[in-house]
Amino acid sequence: MPWTRAMDEKFEKLFAMMAEMKARLEDKIEAGQEEMKAGQEEMKARQEEMKAGQVEMKVRQEEMKAGLEKKMEAGQERMEQVQEEMKDLIRAGKEEMRVHVASQVEGIKDHVDGCIGRGSPRCERKNRGSEN
């Protein structure tokens, strides 16, 4: 089959169409690569934001921990102070009771000594009742 001018023209059209298709495909590939690159950059920026957020969260946790420890220490100190105050109150109450009992005992001794010294009939009756 002889090569004709018509075949040359058809091949030229075919090559032109293929070149056009290749150019469009290259444009699409380039656009896709640019879109992918933009997506990667956005993802990288989001990752950086996440890292910064994690650092900030860790700082806040440390601040909260320090604040709680400080409050716990203050609470412990206050509890120890209240315990000491309670111990002091108990000691004072015991001392007050001891003084009161000693005073009562002294009063009873004085009364008994007075009864014995006077020979009181009430004391004598009580003494006779206990002698029998």
What's this model, at a glance?
The chain is mostly helical. It is built from 2 helices and no strands. Helices cover 95% and strands 0% of the residues.
Describe the structure.
- With 132 residues, the chain is mainly alpha-helical.
- The chain has helices spanning 5-118, 121-131.
- The longest helix has 114 residues, at 5-118.
- The radius of gyration is 54 Å and the shape is rod-shaped.
- The chain starts with a helix and ends with a helix.
- Keywords: Coiled coil.
- Residues 22-92 form a coiled coil.
Give the tags.
132 residues, rod-shaped, 95% helix, single chain, mainly alpha, 2 helices
Describe how the helices and strands are arranged:
Blueprint: H1 5-118, H2 121-131
Please report the total strand number as a whole number. 0
Helix content: over 70%
Round the mean pLDDT to the nearest integer and report it: 90
Secondary-structure-derived class: mainly alpha
Coiled coil: 22-92
Keywords: Coiled coil
